[in-house]
Design goal:
four-stranded antiparallel sheet; alpha/beta; nucleotide-binding; ABC_transporter-like_ATP-bd
């Protein structure tokens, strides 16, 4: 049984449908990326799961217990950072952790948590939150999300404001917790970073789930592409079309896919007396796969 089950959720704002038949699961120990364009319904979905917003129909279960706008009992083992951390300007990092741990009997070890989220250094200390940078606030928000020793953590843009080293450290922390059985549902526009982290993806567009898959399954949609600079792009495009390969030209670079293998492409171009000046093989790109899927979904609207 999945740790989190989202079943057939509908949400209407007046006549506007914000969520339509949204369904997906999150397994214990899995890191799931909730991905889609701005306005697709990611934050709405996360707010419904954390009981911050009512929904029109459907069921949300965490650990086999229902979550609704009026019933939050199941949320004691759910941590979240949605939109912006709820941080009080005149309180220190440690005072925030004490505050958010008040209503739980199984809080994380403060010292260990502060070290793991890098809020124990000189930059924090006794300083009040009003003097924190965006990255410091974000790390504190992540620590707050973990204060209950949660089974499920929901993070909306957790890498916002973090420097590259902090992003790397956060990725390692999330993976370490997932290895211990903690589940994560993460939304982020930094798809290259998300690609390094998640096990499964849930793609949402216009308030509807258009794909749920493991990363391996998701990338099976993405054919190998050969990106090249040639001596004659127009002739290369015509050659690809004659061979019924998929071909596009992007910023002066020719992209070919659909051939059985690269050698077939090289041989055909040699026979056509087209010189390959640069060549790169591209596959498994989350951003490209997502954009292709969204484009196909929009065409079907």
């Amino acid at each position: 049984m999945a740790l989190l089950e989202v079943k057939n959720i509908d949400k209407n704002f007046g006549k506007k449908k914000a969520m339509t038949n949204v369904s997906f699961n999150v397994e214990a120990g899995h890191i799931v990326g909730l991905i889609g364009p701005n306005g697709a319904g990611k934050s709405t979905t996360m707010r419904a799961i954390t009981g911050l917003m009512s929904y029109s129909s459907g069921t949300i279960l965490f650990d086999d217990k229902p979550i609704t706008f009026s019933d939050h009992q199941a949320l004691d083992k759910v941590g979240n950072l949605i939109e912006y951390p709820a941080i009080y300007p005149n309180m220190t990092a440690l005072e925030h952790l004490n505050l958010y741990a008040m209503d739980t009997q199984d809080s994380a070890d403060f010292k260990d948590l502060m070290h793991k989220t890098q809020i124990d250094g000189d930059n924090f200390g006794k300083r009040k939150a009003k003097n924190f940078s965006l990255g410091m606030k974000q790390r504190l928000g992540i620590a707050i999300a973990l204060i209950r020793n949660p089974k499920l953590v929901i993070l909306d843009e957790p890498m916002n404001g973090l420097d590259p080293q902090s992003v790397h450290d956060l990725r390692e922390l999330i993976r370490d917790l997932a290895d211990q059985g903690v589940a994560f549902l993460i939304s982020s526009h930094l798809l290259d970073e998300l690609q390094k982290l998640v096990d499964d993806v849930v793609i949402i567009n216009h308030g509807k789930i258009i794909e749920t898959a493991t990363m391996t399954e998701f990338f099976s949609h993405d054919k190998v592409r050969w990106v090249m600079d040639t001596s004659d792009n127009d002739a290369t495009v015509q050659l690809a079309q004659d061979n019924k390969w998929t071909v596009t030209v992007d910023e002066g670079h020719v992209q070919i896919s659909g051939a059985d293998n690269l050698q077939n492409v090289i041989t055909a171009m040699n026979h056509a007396d087209i010189q390959i000046q640069t060549l790169n093989t591209v596959t498994g790109n989350l951003e490209k796969s997502l954009l292709d899927m969204l484009a196909n979904d929009d065409k079907g609207e």
